[in-house]
Amino acid sequence: MANDEPTAGGAGSRPRSEAWKTALTVLQSAKPPCVPEGAEAMTVLVEFPPGDPGTPPHRHSGPAFGYVLEGEMLFELEGEPERVIRAGETFWEPGGDVIHYQDGNNRTDSRSRFLVTMLCAPGQPMLTLVDDEELARRQHLRVPRA
User: Fold this and answer.
1) What is the DSSP letter of 60?
2) What is the rounded distance in angstroms from the CA atom of residue 145 to the CA atom of residue 127?
3) Which of 25, 55, 84, 136 has its CA 20 to 30 A from that of 76?
4) InterPro entries, per this entry (predicted)?
């Protein structure tokens, strides 16, 4: 028995949307270093309770691109002043030999949530904590806080 009615999802079942033409908004653009063969990409969701200081000083083996979903993050990279990144704002870091000092929750009354996509160098961990000795040696690279 032939059916001349369009099938769900088939061509002609609904008019094609034009929304895609204006649906994309560029939130950030950065030129990351060359991505080596064998690198791994991962996207992670990070959630900190109110007032949590976040991850201790660390570095990432490759670049990281992030978006704050909820709350506020106190963000500090080596060589840059600390700053607050609010929900709806983006951040990025180059990875490699750059210390990420802060990513904690800047608010004491609400949680913070952010999404990060990272490129990890082949055979390297995504995150490596920095010890106190290295922090002391590199203190001159940290922007003084007000």
Assistant:
1) E
2) 25
3) 25
4) Cupin_2, RmlC-like_jellyroll, RmlC_Cupin_sf
Q: Which span out of 12-16, 46-50, 94-98 was modeled with the highest average pLDDT?
A: 46-50
- Cα 94 from chain centre: 11
The structure tokens 């061509």 sit at 11
pTM metric for this prediction: 0.81
Tell me the C-alpha distance between 143 and 27, whole Å.
26
Read off the pLDDT of residues 99-114 as tens digits, 9 standing for 90 and up. Answer: 999 999 999 999 999 9
The rounded distance, in Å, linking the Cα atoms of 93 and 64 is 5
Q: How does the average pLDDT of the chain come out, rounded?
A: 90
In this structure, are residues 145 and 78 in contact, taking their beta carbons and an 8 Å threshold? Answer: no
Q: What residues form DSSP beta bridges with 73?
A: 85, 105
Residue 1 pLDDT exceeds 70: no
> Tokens 């201790």 belong to which residue?
56
CB 57 within 8 A of CB 28: no
* Residue 70, Cβ density class (10 Å: 0-12 exposed, 13-18 middle, ≥19 buried): middle
